[in-house]
Write a structure and sequence with these properties.
By secondary structure, the protein is mostly helical. Helix content is about 55%, strand content about 0%. It has a two-stranded antiparallel sheet with strand order 1-2. The radius of gyration is 22 Å and the shape is globular. The termini are far apart.
């Protein structure tokens, strides 16, 4: 049983939940980006519509993970803690989580789908993780109510974690009183005004908090095993379709041969996957990760709510979401077809979602933060233009550079003179 006796432990577990939603979103996007877009060996023109349909399903689920991440950050803010946008590097194998909570960047295929199904499984579903994922380490020891310092606790499914958070919210609301627990201002939370998700509500009391937890559980983690509209059921439907197509055509290959390759290690550590040696791929990979890092800074700034006006917050949210579609998605799909190089002949890179550091993404002062955003947008646009590429690759990079510069111009107009 998960113990939530203090606000600090509740905050710790909510931050862990935010990490989990973030990691899940990255592995889903990687798989979606890996799907091919044109017919060729292993993929006929008649099979292509199914591939596009699967991509849409996975991208929609990744979008809902983003919603869950935002809802969790609303909860974190509501109880008086800072927004949490960081996460462990990928692959992530049981470092601080229970030993069977694992994440990896996998190409679309049977292994990836079975791993996603296992991750999203309801408590009553009898499914196993693929054999590639071997639980590592022991389970966290049970926490005593008398413990003062926060730490990770044991759970089997995401649904179980969220149901435990629900119990913790009820307990602390009774212990501290609802006004004593929900001390964060509602204006410091994300709402449909800026992100257009009707379910993204500000949390001011226990009922609103419990509704948020219920929404997350029902939509994906912990829904009943026969719920076809939950993440679990939707991934299972895609797997059934994939197996049917492969049974009819054993040569069917819907995904690029992506492997989790990186340009360099993480904070001085040696990379776990192949190293990207192709110069064009390396340049695009660095560009993708720099924009991803910038998006996290923008979102952290949005949730931190410093001295921005309502219109400026809407602009910041619009800029971040816009870059997801005009930069992250096209670059992720481009990387899925670019070669790794000599360390992995025949393999393509894919988007590594690598963070150069694991620290706070908060830029605390409004004017300084917006100057930094504009500066980085201009730097990444210049980098996109400097990458040696031709043909369709050049078209993608030029469009991304154009979107980056347009976003920089919009934000720069809001920076007042010193």
């Amino acid at each position: 049983m998960i113990v939530v006796e203090h606000r600090k432990e509740l905050s710790y577990l909510l931050c862990q939940a935010a990490e989990i939603e973030h990691l899940a979103m990255c592995q889903y996007l990687y798989a979606a980006f890996s799907l091919r877009t044109e017919p060729g060996p292993g993929l006929t023109a008649e099979q292509l519509p199914a591939v596009e349909r699967w991509r849409k399903v996975i991208l929609a689920i990744a979008g809902e993970e983003m919603l869950h991440w935002a809802l969790v950050n609303n909860l974190i803010t509501a109880i008086g803690s800072a927004p949490f946008v960081s996460r462990p590097d990928l692959p992530h194998r049981a470092k601080g989580y229970p030993p069977d909570v694992q994440f990896a960047l996998l190409p679309f295929g049977e292994t990836a789908l079975r791993h996603f199904i296992y991750f999203e499984r309801p408590v009553d579903a009898d499914v196993a993780d693929p054999t590639e994922f071997v639980p590592a380490g022991g389970r966290p020891a049970a926490m005593e109510p008398t413990e003062l310092l926060p730490r990770g606790q044991d759970f089997l499914t995401q649904g179980q974690l969220y149901r435990s958070l629900e119990g913790g919210l009820r307990h602390l609301a009774q212990k501290l009183g609802e006004p004593g627990l929900f001390i964060g201002p509602p204006w410091a939370q994300a709402t449909p005004r800026d992100f257009h998700w009707p379910d993204l509500v500000a949390i001011t009391d226990l009922d609103a908090a419990l509704q948020v937890v219920e929404r997350i559980v029902v939509q994906g983690e912990g829904a009943a095993a026969d719920a076809t509209d939950a993440h679990f059921g939707r991934f299972r439907a895609v797997l059934d379709e994939l197996l049917a197509v492969k049974a009819a055509d054993p040569t069917f290959e819907p995904a690029h041969p992506v492997t989790a390759a990186v340009v360099r290690g993480y904070e001085g550590a040696e990379p776990e996957g192949p190293r990207i040696t192709d110069p064009t791929t390396a340049g695009v990979s660095d560009l993708f990760n720099a924009i991803y890092d910038l998006l996290l800074q923008m979102l952290c700034r949005y949730f931190a709510f410093g001295h921005e006006t309502g219109e400026q917050l809407t602009m910041l949210a619009s800029a971040a979401v816009g870059l997801m579609f005009t930069a992250v998605k096209p670059l992720g799909m481009l990387l899925a077809r670019l070669p790794v190089g000599e360390e992995a002949p025949g393999a393509t890179a894919g988007a590594s979602f690598q963070l150069a550091y694991r620290a706070s993404f908060l830029l605390p002062h409004r004017r300084v933060a917006w100057i930094r955003f504009v500066e980085r947008l201009e730097e990444t646009a210049a980098h996109a233009g400097s990458i040696a590429a031709g043909g369709a690759d050049r078209v993608v990079l030029d469009r991304v550079a154009l979107a980056l510069r347009a976003t920089a111009e919009r934000l720069a107009a809001e920076i007042e003179p010193a």
